[in-house]
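Worked example 3. Consider a protein that binds PRP.
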Amino acid sequence: MYEIRGLNEECGVFGIWGHPEASELTYIALHSLQHRGQEGAGMVVSNGSYLFGARGMGLLTDALTKDQLRSLKTFPYAIGHVRYATTGGSELSNVQPFLFKSHHGDLGLAHNGNLVNAMNIRRALEDEGAIFQTSSDSEVFAHLLRRSKAGGKKARIKSALRQLKGAFAFVIMHEDSLTVAVDDHGVRPLMLGKIDGAYCVASETCAFAAINAEYIRDIEPGELITMTDDGIDFDRYTETDKPNMCSMEYIYFARADSEFRGTSTYTIRKALGKALYKEMDVEADIVIGVPDSSLAAAKGFSDASGIPQEQGLLKNRYVGRTFISPGQEARERAVRMKLSPVKDIVDGKRVIVIDDSIVRGTTSKFIVKALRKAGAKEIHMGVSSPPIKNPCYYGIDVSTHAEIIASKKSPEEICDRIGADSLTYLSVERMHEVYRTYGSRGECDACFTGKYPIEIIDQVLPQEKDLKTKGV
Ligand SMILES: O=P(O)(O)OC[C@H]1O[C@H](OP(=O)(O)OP(=O)(O)O)[C@H](O)[C@@H]1O
Ligand SMILES: NC(=O)CC[C@H](N)C(=O)O
Ligand code: SF4
Ligand SMILES: [Mg+2]
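Given these inputs, the predicted complex is written out as structure tokens:
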């Protein structure tokens, strides 16, 4: 089974402390984070003495049954997760939040990101006798926490976090506390909010909008926040602070209404489109954005160039969840099912098509062919991100080198391959410039530049880790 998206999302996490409707709110919040992961979902709740959980495969609405939800009701503390697998196969045992039991107490764990030394740690622990229940990278944190000899819960959490390398936004639940931590590069987003006096955290602010919570602020790289019935405690687990927020969150992953430091992704994408115009000197009659994620960039390009934006491509909204068999031919068929041109809009026109990214080139190749068939006179592709050349080790399935078209081909060769009249990518420098305008302190750009900000200790692509974990 293979999903038709060119880029696959990561996970979404949520947590809330001390609200009478905690589990209902968690369910609604997870629903709004569904775009971040569709392979499985779950929830862990606390009654102050014990933790209880439920999880299942698929979309949230399929993963949790009405009976399960009813059994989680009335608990005032809850965490939740929607999963897209990075390390560890798509199977129930890997679906989060994890729930661990020990005579020291219960532990609930939800993770967004990908650890780049999990395999190393896991092998060392296995050699010492540890037995893992999952093939997920996230489980190593629970082992490190349980084995820590530091005095006090917070000190144990800190010492476990310090041993991890990679990307993480963790939501950690004990019976009497909710702790959240973001890695010192802040690769994955985590936001702090408040509703009816109760604090909550979410991967994206769209979750706060869905439950009517107030968005307080973005959680900083290296921060450690603990919520208990006595209030909230702001701390850090490390003094290092090397901000490297994932560029693809801004470009493609986050929902357009989600905010970073108070600015919507829509606005940031529009600015990326505007910036692209500065580098794309092409005359045309209309600008078309590839729906849905590139409409904002197309608007920015249209505003800056004065060329009118038209809805020249339509997206069939029911194919987002279509699964098809792997293979290029099947992938092409899927794009045909998904996008179709509006003939009388493009017929006889010189068209600029704006997309947010090119991975394999399947989408752009299809679009160019379809627009030509619909009568477009010229087709110029503008991409509101730099060429993706490298895979991601920090929690996004950008695919392997072999499949990424720009890893071996120059923009000219790609232009030729997709059959466009011209192809322009946004430069890395201008992309960073846009992020700086909106208050970002630094971004990861490794899939464009190959400069990985966090050393890849395991030296294995997340997609290949499952086999390695199984000892193959
Ligand atoms: O070069 P490719 O391998 O075809 O991948 C690139 C495409 O993938 C993404 O869209 P996607 O179709 O995943 O989803 P969207 O509808 O959310 O834009 C991205 O926005 C590009 O359009
Ligand atoms: N995409 C994610 O953030 C997934 C979290 C974790 N690495 C897993 O594979 O389950
Ligand atoms: S490599 Fe690319 S997708 Fe991965 S974290 Fe960095 S910017 Fe994001
Ligand atoms: Mg797209």
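Take a moment to read the result before moving on. The radius of gyration is 22 Å. The pocket of glutamine (ligand 2) is lined by residues 10-11, 83-88, 94, 111-114, 136-138, 395 (CB under 6 Å).
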